[in-house]
């Protein structure tokens, strides 16, 4: 039997062992901590799961008191679990259990069980490894389902028949795909087939949990691994039908269009090399979401997806709402990026004029750098000449952006002349003239006729007022 005591050096482990000995109960550390330890996977944060063949709540309370008097223990009586934080690590305690499920619910009947019962109810063999903490067997690795072999072969497999594991808790189907994406593992054939046959059962899982797993897939190093599996198993059509609909290509009059599903995944993988911002990654996933609904065939132009960026922007609130994603500034941010995602590309296709760059800067504001990151990821042509032409034009756009920004400070544009100044100058009540003059000033700045400063804008306002037959107060 493998012994891992040299890796479990944290003083909390020996304390848990000592108290378990005193209580006469067996206790193990299990789950992700053991898996990641054996994989030598570094984590930024972690939680440590502890299972005891006894009461998890009693054990947690006694261990916490021994570690530091007054250390706060949070108890979830309904679940029979308890946790405390020590050295910034969450230690979670649970009693070994046996569970039985009803068909239409994820909520099990729970009874006390043996360690073996507990390992069987775990989702995957690689998550069912346990290290003993009692002093006589401290560090012994228990591996009832050959999880170590699956770690070596990089395989996701359920400890029981997959139909049983997934039927008990359909969320595990998504967890399988999430771990495959995070760890770059294969899902074993039988396990994958069971997901395919049971994919409809995902409907009984709460939206929040589904979205939590989706976010983890999106944040994995190469999200396409997860999305290809979601598609293959039928889960994508249920949880994100809008992305499923991107799949496929059509040919008419000998003219085809690219498969927008695979294109989207390529964009998502490319952007993931450059950012860990979840919302920027969501923007990549959704940037072409309106292509299926805007697709037309024009005998002269071929396939068009007219205004798919704006239609996409409008589709997002209902998608976010359904997925229980935040309907706040995160949604606005993704909407902005989706609506603007073609602007830098269009711009780089033509001569890159100062005024076009100014307008882009003004519309994108602080998100201009993220928008450029999205656009660069979006250039996925198979034609290397086209890609290098785009990239060098892009470089030019970036230089101009920098240049103009330094000169004109247009990011988060605030007009140098306010409505109040206009009303005051021409003794006007609020009315449409104010708007006309204000937008004329903005246009003049964007077109480069005047600079973005008070004096030039003031002079421009006087001239514009004159044109409109207004008299300035002297
Ligand atoms: P990570 O912390 O990276 O998300 P993890 O494996 O620690 O990965 P947790 O969600 O923290 O996952 O759960 C801890 C352990 O509890 C898992 O390793 C697994 O053994 C078990 N587990 C969690 N959720 C389920 C589930 N839905 N069905 C069965 N077992 C589960
Ligand atoms: Mg964990």
What does this structure look like?
- This protein has helices at 11-23, 32-39, 56-67, 115-120, 147-153, 162-168, 171-183, 189-198, 207-218, 224-233, 235-239, 241-244, 260-272, 278-286, 291-294, 308-323, 329-340, 343-349, 354-364, 368-378, 384-408, 419-426, 432-447, 454-467; strands at 27-30, 47-52, 74-76, 81-86, 89-95, 97-100, 109-112, 130-132, 141-142, 155-156, 186-187, 251-252, 255-256, 295-298, 302-305.
- The protein has 474 residues and is an alpha+beta fold.
- Among the domains are: 5-153, Beta Polymerase, domain 2; 154-239, Orthogonal Bundle (Hydrophobic Seed Protein); 419-467, no CATH class.
- The strands form five sheets. The chain has a seven-stranded mixed sheet with strand order 3-4-5-2-1-8-9. Strands 6-7 form a two-stranded antiparallel ribbon. Strands 10-11 form a two-stranded parallel ribbon.
- A hairpin with a 3-residue loop joins β14 and β15.
- α18 (343-349) packs across α21 (384-408) and α23 crosses α24 (454-467).
- The longest helix is centred in the last third of the chain and has 25 residues, at 384-408.
- The protein binds adenosine-5'-triphosphate and magnesium ion (MG).
CATH C-level category of the domain at 5-153: Alpha Beta
Oligomer: single chain
| CATH fold description of the domain at 5-153 | Beta Polymerase, domain 2
Low-confidence stretches: none
The radius of gyration computed from the alpha-carbon positions, rounded to a whole number of angstroms, is 30 Å
Question: Structural class of the helix and strand makeup?
Answer: alpha+beta
Distance between the amino and carboxyl termini: 95 Å
Biggest sheet, in brief?
7 strands, mixed
Number of strands: 15
Helix amount? 40-55%
Named once each, the bound ligands are: adenosine-5'-triphosphate, magnesium ion
Q: Please state the average pLDDT score.
A: 92
